[in-house]
Amino acid sequence: MPDDFERELQARLAVIEDPTYDDPARADLPARDLVVLAVLGVLTIVAMIVWSYPA
Hints:
By secondary structure, the chain is mostly helical.
């Protein structure tokens, strides 16, 4: 079992250390997604402020 683990670890490290490897998790978010997140954040904050004060 340790041999299988070591072999798999080395295979994964070889992929990550490859200079041509493009990590999709480190890609930038598109501008549209950033705008949507900003608008949703502002709407959430406004809704929380309005909800927290009694009428």
